[in-house]
Amino acid sequence: MEYAAVAPLFDRLIDEDLDAPFDVQQKRFLSFNELEASIMKDLSNLLNTRVSLAWQNNVAKIVAPYAYGVNTKISISPDNVADIRELELNIDKAIRDFEPRLIDAHSHVTGIGEPAGTLSITIDAVIAYKNHHSLLSFPIVVSL
Known about the structure:
The protein is an alpha+beta fold. The protein has one domain (about 5-144): Roll (Nuclear Transport Factor 2, Chain: A), CATH 3.10.450. The chain is built from four helices and five strands, in the order βαβαααβββ. The strands form two sheets. The protein has a three-stranded antiparallel β-sheet with strand order 3-4-5. A two-stranded antiparallel ribbon has the order 1-2. Strand 4 and strand 5 form a beta hairpin. It is globular.
C-alpha cells in the first residue's frame, strides 16, 4: 500500500481492537483514503465545537487551543446573505487555524435547518500530501 501521509498523533493512539493485548500493525502512516477520512473526522470535530465570541475576540491575533472551534451564535437567516457570508468566513478561519493539512479551504453554506437544528456545509480545499496536491470537496452537516 502506498502511503500519503504520517498519521496524526491521536489517530496513532487509538486502540482499534480492545481485546487484543497488542495491535497487529501500528498505525504510523495513512493511505490517501485514510488521510481523507482523518481530515473529515477532524473537520467534523472542529465544526461541531463551539467557542464563544468573547474568546474569539480575545485571541484574534494568536491561535490558542482554547479558541478551538467555530462561533455559530450569529443569528442566521437563510435569506440574509451577509449572515451566511459571516458564518462562512468564521468557518474558513477556524479551518485555516486548526487544520493545516488543507490549503486554501473555502466553505459554502448549502442548507440551513435540514434536518432541524443543523447546517449543511460544503468545504472545498486542496489537500497536500507527499509532492501532490488534490482538490477535494467535503460535505459536512454540523449542529447549530
